[in-house]
């Protein structure tokens, strides 16, 4: 089971022996408790852009830092914050990798792994996040979006590399998805060149998130129950479904099913009726 954002049918169908069953979202996002509000873009009062990463440290490699350094070299006044640091050895390793790319250690801020409320508060210091590859962020990307911080991501040809692209697609931020390293750098620079637009996006991000399926667990659960009903003996369609045919009526990024619509959709499935178009 998956969704069309993390496993696009045209690119991924041949990677699976079994047919892909498309859900409204591959998973649901549970809001962190005691989450701080979204703040104004920090670049306004800092006078420079701050990029960030809160991904697990085992996702950060010399190649990842080399790509981030391309962004920092192209924007000499910018800085970067890296969270989830577990020990001094990791910090020293990253400093060496940045310095090897010509980035002074004074431009990098390291934040140790901390409690969830403090971690969420750290997003107040970041304007845009830069994703890791080939193992991209997933829950961290969702947390960043909820805190108003978009992520520039570079998806690959595996599910693990497409998590960031998946969540950006669900909130209609495809312009933050890069096709190659050169475009990754270009997008990061272009998106931070208009701070007013970036701040407007930041302030309205929670409304955008609330209009997307992953931020509504009940919608994800409804889609899952419909899919399971189709797989059960009482709900298997007599006609084989095509790879590209979703197992339910898609809700769209900003078009959630109401409770009544969800119940009707499930009733259609259980009684082997096609939903009204």
Verbal overview:
The chain has 277 residues and is an alpha/beta fold. It has two domains: 9-28 and 216-270, no CATH class; 43-212, Rossmann fold (3-Layer(aba) Sandwich). Helix content is 39%, strand content 8%. It is built from twelve helices and five strands. It has a five-stranded parallel beta sheet with strand order 3-2-1-4-5. Helix 3 packs across helix 8 (181-191) and helix 11 (217-231) packs parallel to helix 12.
Which residues form runs of ≥5 with pLDDT under 50?
Answer: 233-259, 261-277
- Class from secondary-structure proportions: alpha/beta
What is the topology, as strand order, of the major beta sheet?
3-2-1-4-5
Mean pLDDT: 80
Question: What is the number of beta strands?
Answer: 5
Choose one word for the global shape.
Answer: globular
User: What is the CATH architecture term of the largest domain?
Assistant: 3-Layer(aba) Sandwich
Task: Give the number of domains.
Answer: 2
* Strand content range: 5-15%
Report the C-alpha radius of gyration, rounded. 20 Å
Assigned CATH superfamily of the largest domain = Glycogen Phosphorylase B
Tell me, what is the CATH class of the largest domain? Alpha Beta
Spatial gap, N to C terminus: 24 Å
């Amino acid at each position: 089971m998956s969704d069309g954002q993390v496993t696009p049918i045209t690119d991924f169908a041949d990677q699976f022996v079994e047919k892909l069953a498309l859900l409204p979202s591959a998973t649901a996002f549970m809001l962190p408790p005691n989450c701080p509000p979204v703040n104004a873009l920090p670049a306004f009062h800092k006078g420079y852009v701050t990029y960030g990463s809160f991904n697990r440290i085992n996702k950060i490699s010399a190649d990842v830092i080399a790509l981030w350094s391309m962004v920092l070299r192209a924007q000499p006044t910018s800085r970067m914050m890296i969270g989830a640091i577990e020990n001094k050895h990791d910090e020293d390793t990253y400093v060496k990798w940045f310095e090897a790319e010509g980035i002074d250690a004074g431009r990098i801020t390291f934040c140790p792994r901390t409690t969830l409320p403090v971690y969420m508060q750290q997003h107040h210091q970041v304007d845009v996040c830069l994703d890791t590859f080939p193992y991209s962020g997933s829950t961290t990307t969702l947390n960043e979006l909820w805190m108003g911080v978009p992520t520039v991501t570079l998806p690959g040809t595996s599910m693990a590399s497409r998590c960031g692209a998946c969540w950006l697609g669900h909130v209609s931020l495809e312009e933050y998805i890069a096709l190659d390293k050169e475009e990754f750098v270009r997008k990061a620079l272009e998106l931070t060149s208009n701070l007013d637009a970036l701040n407007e996006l930041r302030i309205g991000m929670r409304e955008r998130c609330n209009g997307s399926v992953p931020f509504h667990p009940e919608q994800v659960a409804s889609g899952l129950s419909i899919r399971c009903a189709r797989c059960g003996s009482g709900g298997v369609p007599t006609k084989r479904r095509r790879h590209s045919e979703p197992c339910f009526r898609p809700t769209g990024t900003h078009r959630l099913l109401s409770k009544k619509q969800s119940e009707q959709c499930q009733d259609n499935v259980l009684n082997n009726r096609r939903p009204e178009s």
